[in-house]
């Protein structure tokens, strides 16, 4: 089967938004190459396994590459993609040149081209992300391995927004917590939560491709099972009470999620969220406070923010 590859030349701050545009345009899979993913790979920090210079990567900016099946007539949708990328400036995001390039690619090229960028990386004190095709032995007693195959749709789990949520989970999980992962993508946050000691974990994503990808990655991490996963739009129709809700999604999508998260958290429960570019931080913080949350902690990597917010306990008499 032949696919059409569409690549958007952009900036790091816009990769999540550009990925959403391509996915919304009918892409079956998205690959992200972001120079900022490699800025934190310095010898000794978190005990990384590889140095950035040893991995072929972009030195500046970012590229988001999407793959469209034969039944999508790409020339017809390219002008709309270009327009939507350029409109990101109106939302405070810099898309850079916004150049859009398309080319044909066959299954074999598409399935293997990105693997050269994917190496084991120690993300936090306890968590190391390992590609499923690489044999790797733990180097420290506390080290927990997350085996991932990003396949068609998802990245390596090392984007700053994902790193922020992995750090937040490591900070907040003490053992036995019930967790909902909204917009699970590859399933990396759900897997991490279980490996860190969480109890019941539910994961949801609007995209069935994401659900299928997460299911496959969960199989690669038997120590993380069981995880309940399904297709759902945010927390629509979900009415429960859990200890933690985690979401690594676009800031614009976090806004309608906030009241849903508040409803589905126990008093004292925590909402961990990222995908927040600097220009959107005040919007998300204000939305959280207006919906009853207390903002307890802010995490940051470069232009990306993560927030740990708490649903207050009821006042004691």
Automatic annotation (TrEMBL):
Keywords: Cytoplasm, Methyltransferase, Ribonucleoprotein, Ribosomal protein, S-adenosyl-L-methionine, Transferase. One of its GO terms (molecular function) is protein-lysine N-methyltransferase activity. It is found in: Cytoplasm. S-adenosyl-L-methionine binds at residues 162, 183, 205, 248. It catalyses: L-lysyl-[protein] + 3 S-adenosyl-L-methionine = N(6),N(6),N(6)-trimethyl-L-lysyl-[protein] + 3 S-adenosyl-L-homocysteine + 3 H(+). One of its GO terms (cellular component) is cytoplasm. Pfam families: PrmA (PF06325). Methylates ribosomal protein L11. It comes from Paucilactobacillus nenjiangensis. PANTHER family: ELECTRON TRANSFER FLAVOPROTEIN BETA SUBUNIT LYSINE METHYLTRANSFERASE. The keyword Methyltransferase applies. One of its GO terms (biological process) is methylation. Its EC number is 2.1.1.-. Belongs to the methyltransferase superfamily. PrmA family. It is an enzyme of class 2 (transferase). The keyword Aminoacyl-tRNA synthetase does not apply. InterPro entries: Ribosomal_L11_MeTrfase_PrmA, Ribosomal_PrmA_MeTrfase, SAM-dependent_MTases_sf. This is Ribosomal protein L11 methyltransferase.
